[in-house]
Structures are given as structure tokens and as C-alpha cells.
From TrEMBL:
Gene3D superfamilies on file: Chloramphenicol acetyltransferase-like domain
Bilayer topology: Single-pass membrane protein
Keywords of this entry: Acyltransferase, Endoplasmic reticulum, Transferase
Organismal lineage: Eukaryota, Viridiplantae, Streptophyta, Embryophyta, Tracheophyta
Protein name as catalogued: Diacylglycerol O-acyltransferase
Length: 476
């Protein structure tokens, strides 16, 4: 048993977003699959967890209370028995299809609920050699503990560089894009500032009108990849593909875009190719060679959950676990709706150009802050159930969830186990398709998470997205 000590309060109220993730129809949890080049040493992992992750209050607290009759959920510190959280299944290391076994194992985890009488996290350790690892670790963490970015950052704060076992991982920081106002002076600067402010207000107004319309009635086209009502309760199939980050950077530099622009463009391309096949007469063509079979004016949008809290850095989280120092934690999230252009253009580079135009407009909008403020206001006025219904309607009326997470720039180890890949995703929300990208060293991992009753061939969709990057690269 691991005792609880330190400066943290023994009882803390659960944040509004944390409470939301315990409402019916929005019981979300994070799944993160990691591979190691070494056979896992279970005892070493347990010692490492005791010395780091368990010092975080959310990993050593249970949820108590409820939101009914004026009650309020809260976190209460408790002793942690690692045997309740570390699962080491007995498996045949010489099985014929280890990768398929891991895929099935992860799918089973999406079926099971979490035991609320203990802290809401699990770590499954599989001593199994797959095509890209010699053992597998699978984290399952309830979303009420924290948003996806914070949870991944916390896990990375428990790792160290392979080249320097005492050093924390290096996470590339995104360059801040300038708005162009700093180099303009005089009347030109004043006029540009006015134009900049007006376009910011206009973009925000358009985004908020579309957001309100989505809450009320605006639904995406009912395509073969859109989930049906109740999709959030169905088990999920999670598949992933590794591809070259250098290829993404090549396209980025050639098109003067960003990595986000490129991966959004390749996702649009892959989804377009997949749908084009579904709408074709024979259903066999893997590309646009047979022509454009897509219906006109498909409305298809991705929902991006944005963490608007300034996330604690890797160093801050590591210090927190070592010294119980306080850093801001929890879920402080907002919505951004990204429209996908579903088409088969003659020039594959159009996918990147379209993605760049959309993201540039979203960057010059206060949509995320506005949706967060509206959600918080409605929660304060009408309660958690009303806010949960609003969020549920927004996701139900769109088609997929999308995210991109920047990972370590060089190899890292998890309690002495060198990692070969990191593949995170989220389950429990009302989408039949979720697409995540996770970078690690010079590789990018694409993670596709589907309801198989909606998308029965997720490997084909995965291939379409990765192959689309090759088509875009060749078009250069």
C-alpha cells in the first residue's frame, strides 16, 4: 500500500469539466498504448510509479459524492494498492498474431467500465513481442482526472531521455505566429490594426453563429462514417500506423504551411478517398482513378477539444510529483469546429491549401474562448446536466474528433524501458470516428479509433490517410 502525504488537501471539489465526464453519454477515458524495446520489468515499473505518478493527487484520490439533490462530486485522497491498478495478463509470448491480440485486448478495454471505489486509472503490461515493440503498456485513465494534453504531459514527466537518464524529455515548442502588426507604423499600421480587429470579430461572430446553429439544428451529412445515436456506448476498435515526420516537414516547408496544416490536409484527403470508395458502384477503388463518386455539398466537420488553460510544462509536472508543489490541473476545455472539404481535386496539394486556409481563419478567431465562456455560463445558470446535453449535441451533430499532440524530440524511457512508440486516443464520446496524431522523435503515429458498426474496416481508413501523404508528397 502507498500512503498519502504531502501538502495537498485531503479533499477537493471536482471541476465542472470533471463532473461532466461522469454524466451519462459522456463517460470518457483516455487510452494510451506505448511500446518498449525491452521486456517489461513489472517490479521496476511499480517502484517508479510509487516514486512519481502516485504523488500526483488525482492518481491517489477516489471520487465521492454525486451531482443529485444539490450534491457535488469531490476528490478524496486515499491509500493506493498498486495491485488494483497494474494488470499483467498471462499470455502466450509465442502466439501467431501478437499485433492482432494487442488490438483485440485494447478493444476489450473500451467495453469495460472503471471501478469508482479506487483511483480512476489502470496500467496493463503485456509481455509480448509485436512488430514494433518487445512489450506493450496500455494506460486507461478516466478523463475526469485531466484533459488529454495534461495527462500525456504527466506521463512524459515520468520518463527520461535515453541519452541522459537524469534529463526530462525535450518537447518541441510551437513557434508563435506573428499577426504582422508589429512591423507596421504610422497610418498604415493604424488601418491594418483596425482591419485586423474587424476580421477577428467577424471570424468569431461567424464561428459562434455556426456553433449555436450546431447546438440547435445544424447536423453533418449522414455519411458512412457518421455515428448513429448511442455510438458513445459501443466498444471501439483502435488501430495505428507509423509514418515519417520528415515527410510531413517536407510538405510543410514546400507549401509554407505548418505541421497541423499538413496532417489536417492528409486527413481530409484520406477521409475523402475512403468515402469515395464507399460511394462508388463497386466499392473497390482505393483512389480517385474511377472518378469522383462523392455526393455534392457533403457537410462534414471535426470537433477539436482545445485546452485553454496554460498547461504545466514537463519540468513543472516532474517537480510537482517530487516535491508536491502546486500547479494548475484539471480540465479547462473548449470547442473548435473544423469543416472538412470532402472532394477529389486534380491536385492533391489542394488538400493542404484548404486545410491551411481553414486553420489560419480559426487562429484569427476567439471561438475557443467564446465556447468555453458560454459553456461555463450555462453550467452556472442551469447545472451540469444541461451543460452535458449541450456538449453532447455539438458532438452528435458533427462527424469526428481530431487532435494532434507534439511528443518528445528524442528517445525516452519509462522507468528504464526505452519507448518505441506512443499511441493515445479517447473513448466514450458520441463519435464513430476519432483521429489522433502523436509525434515521437522522427516518427508520427496516426491513431484511428472507430465504432466497427460504423466503420468496419478501420485499417483501410488508416491506410488511406497515410497513403494520402505520399500522394501529396509526390505532387510536389
Amino acid at each position: 500500500m502507498v500512503a498519502v502525504s504531502g501538502e495537498y488537501a485531503l479533499e477537493e471539489p471536482m471541476s465542472p469539466a470533471g463532473r461532466l465526464f461522469h454524466t451519462r453519454g459522456f463517460n470518457c477515458f483516455v487510452i494510451a498504448v506505448v511500446g518498449s524495446s525491452e521486456v517489461v520489468d513489472v517490479d521496476r515499473v511499480k517502484i517508479g510509479l510509487q516514486q512519481s505518478l502516485l504523488k500526483h493527487p488525482r492518481f491517489s484520490s477516489v471520487m465521492e459524492g454525486d451531482d443529485g439533490k444539490g450534491g457535488r462530486r469531490r476528490w478524496v485522497r486515499t491509500a493506493v494498492n498498486l495491485d488494483n491498478h497494474i494488470v499483467v495478463p498471462g499470455i502466450d509470448p509465442d502466439m501467431d498474431s501478437p499485433d492482432e491480440f494487442v488490438e483485440d485486448y485494447v478493444s476489450e478495454l473500451t467495453r469495460s467500465s472503471m471501478d469508482t471505489s479506487i483511483p480512476l486509472w489502470e496500467l496493463h503490461l503485456l509481455k509480448l513481442k509485436t512488430k514494433n515493440a518487445n512489450s506493450i503498456g496500455i494506460f486507461k485513465i478516466h478523463h475526469s482526472i485531466g484533459d488529454g494534453t495534461s495527462l500525456m504531459s504527466l506521463i512524459l514527466a515520468s520518463t527520461r531521455k535515453i541519452s541522459d537518464p537524469d534529463a526530462l524529455p525535450s518537447i518541441p515548442k510551437a513557434k508563435k505566429s506573428g499577426n504582422g502588426r508589429g512591423h507596421r507604423t504610422g497610418l498604415g499600421g493604424v488601418l491594418f490594426g483596425i482591419w485586423w480587429g474587424l476580421t477577428l470579430l467577424w471570424n468569431t461572430l461567424v464561428d459562434m453563429v455556426l456553433f449555436v446553429m450546431t447546438v440547435l439544428f445544424l447536423k453533418d451529412t449522414d455519411t458512412p462514417i457518421k455515428g448513429k445515436p448511442g455510438v458513445e456506448f459501443n466498444p471501439k476498435r483502435i488501430v495505428y500506423r507509423e509514418f515519417s515526420l520528415d515527410d510531413v516537414k517536407l510538405v510543410k516547408n514546400a507549401t509554407k504551411a505548418t505541421i497541423n496544416d499538413v496532417i489536417l490536409g492528409m486527413t481530409q484527403a484520406g477521409v475523402s478517398q475512403y468515402l469515395n470508395r464507399k460511394y462508388s458502384a463497386d466499392g473497390e477503388k482505393a483512389d480517385g482513378a474511377s472518378g469522383n463518386n462523392l455526393p455534392e455539398n457533403i457537410r462534414l466537420r471535426a470537433n477539436v477539444l482545445v485546452n485553454i488553460r496554460q498547461s504545466a510544462g514537463i519540468e513543472d509536472l516532474a517537480e510537482m510529483m517530487e516535491r508536491n508543489s502546486k500547479v494548475k490541473w484539471g480540465n479547462k476545455i473548449a470547442y473548435v469546429l473544423i469543416p472538412f472539404k470532402i472532394t477529389i481535386p486534380e491536385d492533391p496539394l489542394d488538400y493542404v491549401r484548404q486545410a491551411k486556409a481553414i486553420i489560419d481563419m480559426k487562429k484569427h478567431s476567439l471561438e475557443a474562448i467564446a465556447t468555453y465562456r458560454i459553456g461555463k455560463l450555462l453550467l452556472d445558470l442551469f447545472g451540469i446536466k444541461f451543460a452535458a446535453e449541450l456538449m453532447h449535441r455539438v458532438l452528435s451533430n458533427t462527424t469526428l474528433s481530431f487532435s494532434n499532440v507534439v511528443g518528445p524530440a528524442e528517445g525516452i524511457s519509462f522507468y528504464g524501458h526505452p519507448l518505441t512508440f506512443i499511441a493515445p486516443t479517447v473513448c466514450g464520446h458520441p463519435h464513430g470516428l476519432t483521429v489522433h496524431f502523436q509525434s515521437y522523435v522522427d516518427k508520427m503515429m496516426l491513431v484511428v479509433n472507430v465504432d466497427e458498426s460504423v466503420i468496419p474496416d478501420p485499417h483501410r481508413l488508416c491506410d488511406d490517410i497515410v497513403e494520402s501523404l505520399n500522394l501529396i508528397k509526390q505532387a510536389l
